[in-house]
Amino acid sequence: MKFIFITIPITAIVLSQFIFKPIISIIRGRFSVKDMFSYGGMPSSHSALVSSLSTTIGIIRGFDSPEFAISLFFALIVIIDAVGLRGFMSKQGIAINKLIKDLPDELEYKYEVMNERIAHTISQAIIGVLVGILIPVVILFYLI
Q1: Cα separation of 87 and 44, whole Å?
Q2: How far is Cα 92 from Cα 109, in angstroms, rounded to an integer?
Q3: What pLDDT does 1 receive?
Q4: Is 131 within a domain?
Q5: For residue 78, is it within any domain?
Q6: What is the Cα–Cα distance from 29 to 41, expressed in whole angstroms?
Q7: How far, in Å, CA of 21 to CA of 135, rounded?
C-alpha cells in the first residue's frame, strides 16, 4: 500500500498519454506517434495525473485530510496552467511563426518554428480530470 500514491498517478498518466490519446487520435483520423510525446490533446494527461493523486489521497487519507487539501490545490494550479498559461504560449507560438514566415527567405531559415499546440482546451482538461478520478476509484475498489 505504500507505493499506491505513486503507482496510481503513474498509471493514470501512462493510460492517458499512451492509450487514450492515441485511440482518440485514431478515431479522429489524425494519429501520429509524435503526438504521444507532445503537449496538448485529448485527454489532458497532466490533469489525469494530478487529479488521480488527489483522488487517491482523498480515498485513503480522507477528503478532510491536510494531504488531500495540499494535493487539491496543487492539482488546481496544474490544471489552470495547462489551460490558461499554456493557452497564451500557444497564441505566442502562432504569432511568432507568422512573423517568421513574413521574413525574407534568406532570414526565415535561421529561426526555429515554434510549437503551436501546447495548451489544453477546457474539455480536454475536464476529460483528463474525469480519467484521473475514475482510475483510482476503479483500482482502489478492487484493493480495498
Answers
A1: 13
A2: 19
A3: 66
A4: yes
A5: yes
A6: 14
A7: 15
Q: What is the pLDDT of residues 75-100, one digit of tens each?
A: 999 998 888 777 777 788 888 888 88
Nearest by Cα to 20 from 119, 132, 137? 132
Does the residue 118 lie in any domain? no
Phi, psi of 109 (to 5 degrees): -65, -15
Range of the domain at 46: 4-84+123-143
Number of domains present in the structure of the chain: 1
Determine, yes or no, domain membership for 49.
yes
Q: Which pLDDT value is given to residue 123?
A: 83
What is the separation of C-alpha 85 from the centre of its chain, rounded to a whole number of angstroms?
13
**Cell triple for residue 119?**
495548451
Across the chain, what does the average pLDDT equal?
85
CA separation for the pair 57, 50 (Å, rounded):
11
Distance CA 57, CA 136 (A): 10
Q: Which amino acid is at 16?
A: S
How far apart are alpha carbons 8 and 13 in whole angstroms? Answer: 9
Whole-angstrom CA distances from 7 to 12, 14, 15, 33, 100 are: 9, 10, 12, 24, 43
Which amino acid would we find at residue 24?
I
- What grid cell was written down for 57? 489521497
